[in-house]
From TrEMBL:
The active site is at residue 440. This is Dipeptidyl peptidase 3. GO terms for cellular component: cytoplasm. Binds 1 zinc ion per subunit. GO terms for biological process: proteolysis. It is found in: Cytoplasm. It comes from Cyprinus carpio. Pfam families: Peptidase_M49. The keyword tRNA processing does not apply.
Amino acid sequence: MVDSQYYLPNDIGISALDCRVAFRLLSPKEQMYAHYLSRASWYGGLIVLIQTSPESANIYVLLQKIFRLQAPQQLEAAATAAGLSAEEYQAFLVYAAGLYANMGNYKSFGDTKFIPNLPKFKALVWESLAFKQSPGDMETLWGCCCEPLYSLEDKQKQLGLGEKGISAYFSGNCCLEDAEFAQKFLDSKVYFTFQSLDCFLIACISLPSADNCAVEGKSEVCCGKHEFEDSVFSVKRGDYAFLMEKVCQNLEKAKDYAANENQKRMLEEYIRSFTCGSVEAHKEGSRYWIKDKGPIVESYIGFIESYRDPFGSRGEFEGFVAVVNKAMSARFAQLVSSAEVLLPELPWPPAFEKDIFLKPDFTSLDVLTFAGSGIPAGINIPNYDDIRQTEGFKNVSLGNVLAVAYATQKDKLTFLEENDKDLYIKWKGPSFEVQVGLHELLGHGSGKLFVQDDKGKYNFDQTAVRNPETGELISSWYKGSETWDSKFSTIASSYEECRAECVGLYLCLNKQVLSIFGHEGEDAEEVVYVNWLNMVRAGLLGLEFYTPESKSWRQAHMQARFVILRVLLEAGEGLVGLRECTGADGRPDAVITLDRSKIYTVGKSAIQRFLCKLQVHKSTADVEGGRALYEGYSAVTTDGTHNFLRLRETVLLRKEARKMFVQANTYIKGDAVELVEYEGSAAGLIQSFVERFPDDAEEVEAQLLEMTSMDSRKEEPHTQM
């Protein structure tokens, strides 16, 4: 029997993201701008299929061909003819919706593979109108993906590097040592992000770009072969060329509707970046993006987050377009204004904080388009450390995502005492809003990295700055082109999310912060209690995303929350209680409790000490110390007070699937932009994707298959930039 964690349940939550009112309030020019940015994002988002797994694009094209000729309601008759029950057909629709929502057959949150929960997938394909019209093409497509569609061999159960899982960022013969060696080469050439690597004596590094042109700028690596430490690296451009060209074409059209010069220059640099594969151009575009303060239509696009790269350096494509929610943004603006007062409250010496806090934009947005493998609740970007440290960043909270993503039904609320459940449901939304604000602005936005640049110049006084943990002068820092991601590699993402979550927990105790969000008196105390309770519960839920066989974590945020749970359990004095029990249904269960009277004493002290350690290791590039600290708390063990491996089985037994979102499409009708929304269901999600590429769907699909085929034919070791 297959473990249920590899299926998407038929009753999975699927919600439509409501952006109708926000979109209609835009001017015709703003709507055109949003439309073309959305088109660029959707085309680029298809790259994620190729970044996720070798079979994802094939499955996507198979489904698109089926649903383009028969909508879900029409296909039901074919399903009946193929012998599927109503439950099996719903399982088919849920699988298809999951493939679209995650842009691949691995969950975007957790990196676990999911397979169809029905045995008659092939029978349905053969009964479809698409098969009857083009049996040869459909049979070929089926042959390309039928085996990996259902395969749950140990290596294929999750994304990972080498024997630990599947990765489209590396060829199958790459191990951690190969990835480290490739990173060493890239650091030597002042390279920052890349997409895939095949490893042997010769390694080929591919950069995503529309062209194979030369790039201006001496800090860019030139195409061709490079000898490095008795090995040869071959660098080429042109990865995802067809899709990158589509992205650039739509960004070019968006330029005509830009609101100001910063937006125009931003788009010009993005186009240059995506045409030539230039990281420097994307960084320059990001600088103009930061300068574009308070836009009505907000967006960002590129190879952004490195969560799914097993080495933690390569960016997955994403693009979002959203409209500002002015009422909620006013609260975040007030938080930004208070930042310079709140930052000194953080538990590290002033020397470990940025020299100048560059006040960012912090807005609440209603998402129109979010193309990629998943939609977060908040974002702090750009991810370029050198820009964030000296030029600034932006924070966004995605309001219409928060409104539907974290709604919880009492009968599905696990691991809490009954007297906590009503309180949790009432205050989870408001408390999470506070946590997201603090996490993004003062979590990711705080802390200094000590750097010695290529010219030997320090950004700190090496004769005066002392480690607060030891009292000694600091003895390590970032050198030359080293970055946070390149130094801390496999733990960088989760470690940073943990640091940001701790900042949120620590500063939510500040009454000024709570007042900014409209919480006073008893209500403020309830927000604090539920925020901390939610964090320790999330730490327990995080065990779902741990793989015992490889002793690895598959989701950065959930690993971070488990680490925080361990820290607060270690604090003792009854602050957090965690006990195993038997549920009312006779199955294993667990209950987690939090003593609210000890949050401001025991809890605050524990987070204060831990947060300071996290920042010191990060600031000083102390990889050895940081890794020992973080991996120690990340360990999922059977010894000690709690048997976390047994608790993991209980969590898996009672887990609730993560929600999926249905997004709207925009079309140009005459001189106006039309917004088309879909119902919040598997059928609605499927239909939104079928209608997403109305003019060139077959060409897009043919190119996806060609790109996938090229990847599978590569003989030399390869990595994507």
